[in-house]
Every structure is written in C-alpha cells, then in structure tokens.
Amino acid sequence: MTVVPFDEYDDERHIIEADQVGGQVDPADRKATFADVVSRTDARRPIVPAVLRNPDARRALARWSVSYGGHTALYHLTRSPKYAAKVAVYAPRGAWRAGSAVAWWAVGGRENFHLRQEAANKNDPHTWQALNRTRAKESNARWWVVGVAVVALVVLLGVAQLAVGIPAVGWFAVAVGVVLVAARNGRPADKPIVDRVVTKAAFTKLTGEMVRHAVVALGIGVKEPGQITFPPPGIHKDGPGWLARFNLPGAVVATALLEKRDNLAAALRLPVDQVWPEVGPDHPGQVDLWVGYQPSSKMGQPKWALTADTARTSIFEPNPFATDSRQRPISTVLFQRNFLVGGQPGSGKSYAARTLLTIAMLDPTVELKVAEFKGVGDFLDVEPLCSTYAVGVDDDAFETGSDIIAWALAECERRGKRILEAKKRGEAPEGKVTPELAAKRGSGLHPVFILLDEVHELFAAVPGAAAACERAIKRGRALGIIFCLATQIPDKDSLPPNITRCITTRWCLSVLGQVENDMILGTGAYKRGMTATVYRPGVDAGWGVLVGVDKPGSARSFYPTPEVTAAIVARAGQLRGRAVIGEDVERVEARDMLADARTVLRPGESGAPWAVLAERLAELAPEFYTGITADMVREALAPYGVESQDVKVGRSNLKGARRTALDNAQQRREIEAE
Ligand SMILES: Nc1ncnc2c1ncn2[C@@H]1O[C@H](COP(=O)(O)OP(=O)(O)OP(=O)(O)O)[C@@H](O)[C@H]1O
C-alpha cells in the first residue's frame, strides 16, 4: 500500500492509493452499439396473457367468471330491498353534504375561518374586516364558477335532449346515477351500502415490501430489506397468483430460502401451500416466488383433459398428467421414456403412477402389464385391461413380477429381430419402433406399458430382479416397452442407482431428506433447488418435483374422483373393444445367475473375466441375458459372496470371478438351504 503525505494542506491528511494487483481486467464502459441492440435475445413478455393462450385455462377462466358473476348477481339481487332502503336514507344526506360543500367552497368559508375567529375572539375588527374582504373577493369569483358550471350542465343536457332526444330511460339512468352517487356520499364511512359477497378477503397482492421483510426475517444472511433486488418486470400476476422474481444479495443461495418454506409462509402470514418458492432461471441466487391467490388445497385443480367423454390418447403425443404450481397442465410423451415415481408413504405415488397409466390405457394400441406389491389392490379396477396383472406381497405376486421382467427381456430380443427386418424393409430407418410400426397389425411391435408399484419389494425378494429390470429398461426404450416404477424406499439396495440413471423422467414426491431426494432426482438435485423435502406427506399428497419434462419443477398429479376414475377405465375398455391386448406372461423358470456362471466356465479354466462371463451368459440364454454388461454380472454375483479377483488371461491379469469363488458360493448356498 502506498501512503503519500499531503504536505500542502495538513500533515494528518493522506491520499491512500489502492495497490495495483495485476493488470486491468474490467472492460472499458462503452455505449451500446447497433450490433448489440439488434442481437438482443432478451425473453419477450407474451402479448396475450398465458391464461388466454391455453384452451383449458380459457375455459376454466370462463367457468369461474360465470359462476362467480352469477353468484354475486344473485346474492345482491336477494338483498336489493335492503340496499334500496339504505339508498333512501343516505341519498338525501349525501345530496345535502355535496350541496353544502359546494356552498361552503363558494363563500370561501373554510380557508381563513380560524384566523377570522381568532380576530373576533381578540376583539380585533380591523383584522377581521381585512380577512373578510379577502374572503368576499375570492367568493365572488367562485360563485361565478359555480354559476357557469350549473348553466353549462343545463345547456349540455338541453342540447343533448334537442339534438338526439335523450330517451326516458336515459333520464332515468342519469337520475339513478345521481341518487347512487349521493347515497355513496351520504353513507357513514364504515357502512358500505352493499354487503360483502365473500366471507374471507382473498389474498389480493404480493408487494415488494412483504417479500423483502419476509426474506430478512428468515435469517439466511439477508440483513437489510434493500439488499433484495427485483429484476424487470418486477412482481406481476402469473396465472392465479403473483410471481416475484428476486435476487438474493452476495453469495446467499436460493436453496437456503427453499429449505425454509414454512418460515417464509409464516413471515408472509399465509398458509404453506399458498407459497411456492423455486430457484430462478438466471443464477443460483435468484428466487422465483409464486404466491397463489388461494392455498393450493382450496384452489382445486383444472379439469383433466383425459376425463372428457371423448378422450383418447396416443403415447407418441404429449398428454397431460399433472399440473404445476401455477395450475398449468404438464404433459409428457410416453414413447421412448421410462418413469420413476418415488416418495415416502402417503406421498401419493400410486395415484401419480396411475396418471401415467391413464395415458397408456386410453391409447388402445398399448398393452398393459401391472404388478402392485403393496397388496391393497390400488389398480384392481384396471385388471380387465391388463394382459398381466399381479397384486400382493406373496411369492405368487413376486413370481409374476419377475416373469414380467423376464418377458420384457425376451420380448426385447424378439423385437430386436423384428426391428432389424423392418429396417431392411426401410420401415424403421433409425432402428427404432415408429408410430406407424407400432400401429401396424401383426408387426409385433405394439407399445407395452409396464407399471411396477412398490417395486422395492420385488427387488428385495427376488435376487437378480433389479439387474434384469435395468437391462429391460435399457433395451426396451427404443423397442416400445415403457417402464413406470414406483417406490417408497429409494436407497441403493431397493432401487439400484443404475436403474435410476437409465430412467428419463423422475418424479420425486414428498421425501424426508436430501439423500432420498437425490437418489430419485440425481446427485446434486437438492443443491440445485429441486427439493421435494418441502412437501408434507398427506397434506401435500400428489405434489412432487419432476425432472425429465420440458421444464423441471413442482408437479401435482391429477386426482380425479372415484366416479371419474371409473368412467376413464370404462372408456378405456370401450376403446379397446373389451379385448385385452397382448398375452399373459408365461411362468418363466427364473434363471440362476450363479449356476449359469458356473455352467459357462470352460473345463480347465480357473476363472473368467467379468466381460467374458457377460458375453457367454448372453449366448447361453439370450432371452434373459442379452445386454448384460461386465458390471452387471459383478453386481449380481456380489450378494452370493463372489468377489472380484484377478483372473489370468494370457499373460495379463483381468478382474473377474474365480472358479473357486463360484464353487464356494454354491456350497454356502447349499448349506444355508439345508
Ligand atoms: N394429487 C392428489 N391430490 C390430492 N390428494 C392426493 C393426490 N394424490 C394422492 N392423494 C391422497 O394421498 C393419499 C395417498 O396416496 P397414495 O396411496 O397414492 O400414496 P402412496 O405414496 O402410494 O402411499 P403408500 O406408500 O402409503 O401406499 C390418497 O389416499 C389420496 O387421498
């Protein structure tokens, strides 16, 4: 630091120059050039509000307006005699008040009244007269104004009458208007003429002041309300609520605020389900706070398009299955996607999975296979539509569950060949099922939707089921086989991370902590602000964070009444002509990977590398093992105690399974079985 004495003025004063560390880094300020202006890509605000662009939202708005308007009109109509009586009392009082106010103004009585009174009290006639002269002078001019205004009004009405001939109803309307204005002027300040239609005042407006004070009160490192800035367009209406996008100061991240949603709601004096904070789009310190006009529990949900009597879907087209916090429908294409729904008990997983199943069932080309390992029959009503259906937590249900997975694997194998043929014929240019191929009768490539609810039960009960499911998910995606898994225990045993990784669309409903959250949504999701921990089981049932759709964010499953649900299932039955698409799975002899691994070892081999084992297993039973990788074999044999050891191949050592390890594992299993 350089200190320079400033002798000319004062020994005590110094100029302190900042140290120069490195060269100039800040760009020089310059005015915007033409190129800057024409290349601006700022998001433009839509001309037509979002609510008017979406047909469902338009219909919902129209329905609401008609119902609200109708109710208000009837409410006031029934009270009209009371209103008329009030008007009769207040109108003369209002007319008197208005008249006297004009008269007082015209005589200038108010302006120096106190001064004149003081002069009178002090017995000071000179001052009083001087003040009164001033008043009288002003009063003259004011009477002129009043006179001219009255004459102008009379002339105006007279001319209007002569020129266009105001009908009687016009005079009546003018008279009613004058009487109502007079009544309003004559009513006591705290007594409105009309009664309140709604009992509780709706939340009317979110203001910058409310937001600033609430955020400071959270104690997340924002000390002053002024530290919070609102980028344009500031707080504005967005759907049925208000959106406040704001920047937190310094290094405070939005996730710190998301974790305190309860406190934020308390500070805003609103119910928690009315307050929806999200990380903003520009940087991690930006918050998008959406506050509904009403709590979501009271707001209801827009009508689900799939509940219409004529609803029919195509899994190749986007179809709605949930709504976001601003009541906008969220849609997805089912084809070439897989779905994972996770959450704690009571978070609404089964209903959420059902919304996806609904899209599938209303497409009459889709085969359905449903297995529910909760055992309560959540999907019992769709059994007649399914080619395979299982319910329960018993051996029978688990066997059917693993048969479905084995069937899917074998089907992938069959479909792979069919696709190859189709490709040769030029019908599958990308080597994938196309909508045309899927719809073609006899192509054997119709879409299949497999729903496995509480799938962790199956994975825990049947060793190897998780690995097989992973292979089926990976292979089936391009071949028209869609998996939807729902689970309540997202940990690495009940939901292997490899499965999560290959699933495109994940929906995390209420979970307890960050670990479960990230198990479902992916590592780092919590830190990026995708926090399903804010939802409470039961209260926020159906709400979750959804990734893998157009815009990740909050999503609430559609939740039709039991009657509507029954109507949807009936409609799906009608569309399918009561015929079940596809065949039930055959009881497949479950493959025993340990025994198979021992079988594929060649005589004299002391072991085989994992990759070699994977290759040989796929040759042994292609319908089950096609697509299996070295890692999958290693992971599948680990529970039997088969360690990954060095295996000699030529002159080098590779990791794999030794024959002794496989034999020992088999012996252990036999001893345990006894
Ligand atoms: N979208 C929704 N809106 C409102 N309530 C819902 C919604 N989805 C589910 N619920 C309610 O939540 C309750 C639990 O739903 P569901 O059975 O799907 O939960 P789950 O997570 O599968 O629970 P569990 O694991 O205990 O079976 C249901 O009884 C239902 O009343």
Task: Tell me what the structure shows.
The structure is a single chain. The protein is of the alpha/beta class. The chain has four domains: 80-186, no CATH class; 214-299, no CATH class; 305-575, P-loop containing nucleotide triphosphate hydrolases (Rossmann fold), CATH 3.40.50.300; 593-673, Arc Repressor Mutant, subunit A (Orthogonal Bundle). It has a ten-stranded mixed β-sheet with strand order 8-7-16-15-14-9-13-12-10-11. Strands 3-4-6-5 form a four-stranded antiparallel β-sheet. The chain has a three-stranded antiparallel β-sheet with strand order 17-19-18. The structure holds adenosine-5'-triphosphate (ATP).
In CATH, what is the homologous superfamily of the largest domain?
P-loop containing nucleotide triphosphate hydrolases
| Total domain count | 4
Proportion in helices: 40-55%
Spatial order of the strands in the main sheet? Answer: 8-7-16-15-14-9-13-12-10-11
List the helices and strands and how they pair.
Elements: E1 2-5, E2 14-17, H1 34-38, H2 50-53, H3 55-78, H4 80-107, H5 113-121, H6 125-164, H7 168-186, H8 208-217, E3 236-237, E4 241-247, H9 254-258, H10 261-268, E5 275-279, E6 286-292, H11 296-299, E7 319-323, E8 329-332, E9 339-342, H12 349-361, E10 367-372, E11 388-391, H13 395-424, H14 435-439, E12 448-453, H15 455-461, H16 465-476, E13 481-487, H17 497-501, E14 505-509, H18 514-521, E15 543-547, E16 553-557, H19 562-575, H20 593-600, E17 607-609, H21 610-620, H22 622-625, H23 630-637, E18 645-649, E19 652-658, H24 659-673
Parallel strand pairs: 9-13, 9-14, 10-11, 10-12, 12-13
Antiparallel strand pairs: 1-2, 3-4, 4-6, 5-6, 7-8, 7-16, 14-15, 15-16, 17-19, 18-19
Helix pairs in contact: 4-6, 4-7, 5-6, 8-10, 13-16, 20-24, 21-23
The protein binds adenosine-5'-triphosphate.
Adenosine-5'-triphosphate binds next to α12 and β16.
